[in-house]
Amino acid sequence: MEACAPTPGTVDENALQEFEDYDAVMETIRKVAKGGLTEREIERLLEAFKKTFDKYLEQPYLLDGHLAEIVQALVKPVKSADCTDDVLHTCMVFLVVVTQVRGYKVVVNHLPHELSDIEPVLALLERVAPDSVKLRPTTYMLLLWLGVLSMVPFQLSRLDSGDSGTKPVAQRIYEVMKANLTAVGKANDASSFLSAHFITRPDIKDLYFDDFMLWLQSQISLEKEVTTTNVLSTLAMTFKLAKRDVVMKHAHSVMSLLAEKKLFQGNNFIIERLALKLCQRIGLCFLPVNLASWRHLRCIKQLSQNVQENGPLSEAAFPTAQENGEVDVPEIVEEVVDKLLEGLENGCLNVRL
């Protein structure tokens, strides 16, 4: 859960009031971005950098005023054409420290997201082996960065050269995200973040969505805990981002697979938690939109209406929404509720109903 700024009446007297280490942090980043450091020097700088940010673990919101500048300072050398591998990996390691304190959901908002950045970031990811333990921080941040870039509102086909011997950019991203979802190593939410945002793009879902959903289901196995964790996280995020008519046709097969693989009764509480989270998202897809139509109005204004006595016309913003009343509950929703109630018996899990 993201930390929130306390109310004025609840401020701890010993709590920090602002980000006090801005100058020291920026000086460290300048040294790292310049390059030419020995491994020992990098270790000392990284240790001091971690110690500085650890002070803000309980108050990460204090970073927000300077977060954009910190992120940009660490990313700028990476975008340079003459950036060496050492500078790339070092900058990404330091950026991971910032991300661990503030949370990736906040940090990604400050990553560059121009269309021209897609190919360079993708090329960097293709150079990094997904299974490399040493380069894991680099892979993590590049996946998050590419995930943000995958949300740009332009068709990715614009980046294709048209050469028959060159793979389309969309296909390259598709292959990279599948390779990282099944990489042997530590599970990470960056691969899920990229996969869910890429596969739900309007220009991608018709090409890869159905095949990708079938592929994800084929990768679920309690024997492959890391891959299963990544897959469940991706499915949960996909059911959240995709339109209902796109994911509902896969809901029954996914729900059946969760029960068949006995993911709700496994020994890995992370997998159990993600299975329940996915189960919850599946149930939400089948619930009808139920809004008070009188509260959501969209005004239709024209210049000529400004002088009319009747005022502007209005229509419901959600014309298909149902008002409060009885609705037929699909059988799968009852199954989802049963699973969530069973999850309440597990003291290791947090189930939100």
UniProtKB/TrEMBL annotation:
<dbReference type="GO" id="GO:0048487">
    <property type="term" value="F:beta-tubulin binding"/>
</dbReference>
<dbReference type="GO" id="GO:0007021">
    <property type="term" value="P:tubulin complex assembly"/>
</dbReference>
<dbReference type="InterPro" id="IPR033162">
    <property type="entry name" value="TBCD"/>
</dbReference>
<dbReference type="InterPro" id="IPR058033">
    <property type="entry name" value="ARM_TBCD_2nd"/>
</dbReference>
<dbReference type="Pfam" id="PF25767">
    <property type="entry name" value="ARM_TBCD_2nd"/>
</dbReference>
<protein>
    <recommendedName>
        <fullName>Tubulin-folding cofactor D ARM repeats domain-containing protein</fullName>
    </recommendedName>
</protein>
<dbReference type="GO" id="GO:0007023">
    <property type="term" value="P:post-chaperonin tubulin folding pathway"/>
</dbReference>
<dbReference type="GO" id="GO:0016328">
    <property type="term" value="C:lateral plasma membrane"/>
</dbReference>
<dbReference type="GO" id="GO:0070830">
    <property type="term" value="P:bicellular tight junction assembly"/>
</dbReference>
<dbReference type="GO" id="GO:0034333">
    <property type="term" value="P:adherens junction assembly"/>
</dbReference>
<dbReference type="Pfam" id="PF23579">
    <property type="entry name" value="ARM_TBCD"/>
</dbReference>
<feature type="domain" description="Tubulin-folding cofactor D ARM repeats">
    <location>
        <begin position="271"/>
        <end position="352"/>
    </location>
</feature>
<dbReference type="GO" id="GO:0005096">
    <property type="term" value="F:GTPase activator activity"/>
</dbReference>
<dbReference type="GO" id="GO:0000226">
    <property type="term" value="P:microtubule cytoskeleton organization"/>
</dbReference>
